[in-house]
Request: fold
Amino acid sequence: MNLLALVFFIINAIALWMVPRKYAPIPLLIGCCYMTIGQGIHLGPISLPIFRMLMTVGLFRVALIGERIAQCLNKIDWLIISLAGWLLFASLFHSGMNGSGPLFMLGMLFNITLSYFLIRVWTRDMEELADLVKMIAFLLAPLALAMMVEKLTSHNLFSLFGGVPEISVMREGKYRAQGPFRHSILAGTVGATCFPLFVGIYKINKTSALLGMVSGVAIVLFSSSSGPVMSLFAGIFALIMWIYRKYTRRIVLAAGITYAILMAVMNRPPYYLISKIDISGGSTGWHRAYLIEQTFKHLSEWWLFGTDTTRHWMPGQGIGMWASHTDITNYYIAFGVMGGLSAMCLMICVMIVAFKWVGITSSSLVIVHKNHAFMIWAFGSGLFAHAATSISVAYFDQSMMFFWINIAVISSVYSSNRHMFT
Reply:
């Protein structure tokens, strides 16, 4: 860890320890948005990049100050506990080499569970939810400016901290800005999935909302990647569905029927339609569709506890972070590889329950506070963008925090308003 990174950590750690509860997410999010995983502490096989170190400080804060989840554990809480328990158990059946085994899984679960439960503790009601979104809006603005500089100059300012290249990757003649994240798609995804949240607070705080919306779109554009653009469209589509929210179940049913019809009439599975999408140039949609096909073709290899080897699934395609794996560009499949079909299903169940709770909460709140109802719908729209993104992206750096924070907020708001549903 260099001196600048050490000072960065100390300041944020002190702030995380000292600020009032509702402001506690700020130092944690600063650690995600302005520091790469190239800085941290490495103790043998244990890696603690700065965002993990800040989460550790957050854990000590919660434990020593006595902060707790405002309500009792709910269904999503138990699903995430079950997911964590199963993944840890399944890791015992992995080799412990090349990104597998109990030690690797403990690091992965540290990221997921603390991202989720710390926000559950610190964000309890609609006012605190609005404050959280305002914070994110102001945090993304400087990040958007840094990515603009990177896009124009090809020089990544965050390369000072390591973990990201100094010169931006070029594809199809375009530099792809990535900021502090490990890939331009992950950077763009953060902007795309946060965009609906800013729309959700527009009638509550227009200045923050507009700043966030401009920053989110800018981050998407500077990443020069098709995936984030499609994620942005998915979020906007879900926002528009607010107008037709009474027909959500019918629309979901119609989508399912349409998919079934496409399965019957197409020569290939309908998910191969993503191979036709190429907005920014250089898209690898075919790779992502082929990965889905190969994953279920090799179901017998991974369905129980996952697998340590996927390279033979797609020998002619990209190599993943480890030579034994192909490039797993799908968050759902990543859970299957780590913990089998049970892990994949538990992760999907978390998302299904979260979507259901968005509908219940927004329907109840619209009677007493329409702005708050739309705000939680906006978080559902952000989650829909994450759900669409997860088909083509497996979060593997600090960007995953935005995924689990989204779910944590929905879980907290549902619990704090549960008395209205009975």
